[in-house]
Amino acid sequence: MPRILLAEDDEIMRISIYDRLRKYGWQVDEAEDGLKAMALYAKNHYHLIISDIRMPGLDGLALLGNIRKQNQETDIIIMTAYGSIDDAINCLRQGATDYILKPFNLDDLIIRVTRLLNHQEVKARCEVLEATCRQNHDRKLFGKSPAMQQVYSLIAQAAPTNATILITGESGTGKELAARAIHDTSPRRDKPFVSINCAAIPEGLMESELFGHERGAFTGADQRRKGKFELADNGTLLLDELGDLAGPLQAKLLRVLQESQFERVGGSKSIRVDVRILACTSKDLQREVEAGRFRQDLLYRLQVIPLRMPPLREHKEDIEELCHAFLKEFNAMHGRSATIAGEAIDCLKNYDFPGNTRELRNLMERASVLCRGPEITPADLPFEITCKASHLESDFNLSARLAVAEKELLQIALRQSNGNRTEAAQLLGISRKNLWEKMKSHQLE
Length: 445
Hints:
Elements: E1 3-7, H1 11-23, E2 27-31, H2 34-43, E3 48-52, H3 60-70, E4 75-81, H4 85-93, E5 98-102, H5 106-132, H6 146-158, E6 165-168, H7 175-184, E7 193-197, H8 203-211, H9 228-231, E8 236-240, H10 247-259, E9 261-262, E10 271-272, E11 276-281, H11 285-290, H12 296-302, E12 305-308, H13 319-334, E13 339-340, H14 342-349, H15 356-370, E14 375-376, H16 383-394, H17 398-416, H18 421-428, H19 432-441
Parallel strand pairs: 1-2, 1-3, 3-4, 4-5, 6-11, 6-12, 7-8, 8-11, 13-14
Antiparallel strand pairs: 9-10
Helix pairs in contact: 2-3, 13-15, 16-17, 17-18, 18-19
């Protein structure tokens, strides 16, 4: 919710403006002079300041100067009488965002306030887009299996709320995609979606990444910087790999979740935000709690709604749909038109995919680029997958296993030699005639 500071010494004018601003749902703090306004500004974070230019103690011009020494970002509207138009122009030169002449229509003031707050929201969204422009948000969850239907059902129930959701599952199961699906089906869908990987950022920088920092807070902090919480205001913040967050930051995170406010590193002002928290982890947080590496109270606060993403081995019936979806993506990316044979899909279904859906996706990209024909066949799949499929089909039949291994080696040699049979025979240590006979027996072109 936007927070506004109103400084006006005329009581009737101050009450009138205060009541009108509150009608629009904005949080408003009021001050009868510049000194009190400065004291409030020192304690709190404001999106907008509305100040009269003539006030006892500290006038609007001095208030503007003090604020601009500390902060170049906060928008300031100066209210002035017709007789002091020169003062208003001087205020603009010194950093005021806008001015309005007294007496004025309150609707005119509301229009100006709304315009400035909307501009701030657009600017914040641009910052989020700039920070995440390299991410691919077109990917989504796939699968019609019962396991995935349970995931969709929970997302449909929880997304419309503001409840915190803890998404667990093995690496590569699509936890971040589930978080994106929750945001995209929530009332916050048109607001920022900000993600931070807690495992990828050094501990010394993590607090600044989360909460931002003031200029001069530490060596190299040459300007004020917003953190992820501030960028995600009114939207959704995804804390990815939360189980790797350091202990001291767990305590600070718990406070933010409870109070919805924080201070930037090196700052003393409380910044209030409205953020929906989603958290992902591949760790067993209950075990982390028992080992003393994760706070029990933070786990309680995060696990309001638990969502478990199933590993791919638990919904292998979705492999075919996933293959077609990935091939469509990579064909467009690489200018290909590859398809996949049913035999290849059968091989994939016999493999357990320790890397889950991410492993399958990477495998499809590799196969779509390296397959020699228009269709991905078992020959285009890694040996460990075809060997696994062959083992399931042939059990312990030695001759069948040897035949599969021989065919695989023939294919590898031919690929490495770009189809040159003489060179392939040399790689295999056999004659060209022997190579031709083996290719014929294995039905290799």
